C-alpha cells in the first residue's frame, strides 16, 4: 500500500461531474467571481492573506496559532460547492453546519441549494467577511457564528449534514473532530469533507474509521484555481 489513502479507493458517484470547464476563477484585486449552480457568486475581501500575514504578531503564535488562512479561497471549496449543488435534493430544507467558513462561499452554495445553513469559524474576521459576502449575494443569509469546534455551542443532534473544506491541514485539528461529529450530527446524518492530498491528513481517515464511521472517498479530481491546480478528495462519513 503506497499510502493511507489507498485503503479508500474513490467510488465516483454516478451522475456527478464537478465540471471544471473554462478559465479557473482568479482574484481581480479584492474581488473574486465564481460560477456555481448557474449563477455567479461575487466574493470581496478587504485584504489578502499576505497583507494580513505581515501584521501577525507574537501573540498569534500561541497554542492556537491565528494565521489568516481564512482570507484566501482554497480549491477544495470549489469541489465541495459543486457537490452541494449536486445534492440539493438531499440538503434542501435541512439544517446543515459548515466547519471553517472562511470567506463564506461553501455556506452560500449550500444556502443557494436550499439548505438551512449555519457556518462557523474560529476567527471573528472570517465570520464578518463571510457574513458580508453572503449579504451581497443572497436574499436569505446563513447564520454565521464564531465558534471553537473543541467546544461546540449547538444542541446535540442538530444537523443533518456537516461539511467543510481544507480544514485538516494541522494534526491538532484532527482529534476534536470525532467528538464534534458525534455531538452535532443527527441520526442518519452525513458529513462531507473536501480535502487536498497532504501527508499530514492521510492518517485521519483511518482514525475516523476506527472511531466507528463509515468512511468513503467519493471523488478525486484536480481542481484549477488561478494559475495552479490541486488534487482534491471528496469524502463522506456516516455512522
From TrEMBL:
Name of the protein this chain belongs to: Uncharacterized protein
Taxonomy of the source species: unclassified sequences, metagenomes, ecological metagenomes
Amino acid at each position: 500500500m503506497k499510502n493511507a489513502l489507498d485503503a479508500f479507493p474513490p467510488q465516483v458517484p454516478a451522475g456527478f461531474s464537478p465540471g471544471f470547464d473554462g478559465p479557473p476563477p482568479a482574484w481581480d484585486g479584492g474581488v473574486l467571481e465564481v460560477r456555481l449552480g448557474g449563477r455567479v457568486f461575487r466574493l470581496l475581501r478587504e485584504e489578502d492573506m499576505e497583507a494580513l500575514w505581515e501584521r501577525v504578531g507574537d501573540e498569534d503564535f500561541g497554542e492556537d496559532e491565528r494565521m489568516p488562512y481564512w482570507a484566501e479561497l482554497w480549491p477544495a471549496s470549489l469541489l465541495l460547492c459543486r457537490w452541494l449543488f449536486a445534492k440539493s435534493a438531499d440538503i434542501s430544507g435541512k439544517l446543515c453546519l459548515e466547519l471553517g467558513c472562511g470567506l463564506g462561499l461553501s455556506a452560500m452554495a449550500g444556502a443557494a441549494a436550499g439548505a438551512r445553513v449555519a457556518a462557523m469559524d474560529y476567527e471573528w474576521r472570517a465570520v464578518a467577511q463571510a457574513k458580508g459576502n453572503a449579504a451581497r449575494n443572497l436574499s436569505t443569509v446563513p447564520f454565521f457564528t464564531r465558534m471553537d469546534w473543541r467546544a461546540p455551542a449547538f444542541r446535540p443532534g442538530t444537523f443533518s449534514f456537516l461539511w467543510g473544506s481544507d480544514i485538516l491541514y494541522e494534526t491538532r485539528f484532527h482529534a476534536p473532530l470525532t467528538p464534534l461529529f458525534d455531538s452535532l450530527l443527527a441520526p442518519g446524518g452525513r458529513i462531507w469533507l473536501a480535502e487536498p492530498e497532504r501527508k499530514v491528513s492521510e492518517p485521519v481517515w483511518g482514525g475516523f474509521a476506527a472511531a466507528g464511521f463509515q468512511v468513503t472517498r467519493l471523488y478525486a479530481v484536480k481542481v484549477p484555481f488561478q494559475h495552479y491546480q490541486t488534487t482534491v478528495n471528496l469524502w463522506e462519513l456516516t455512522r
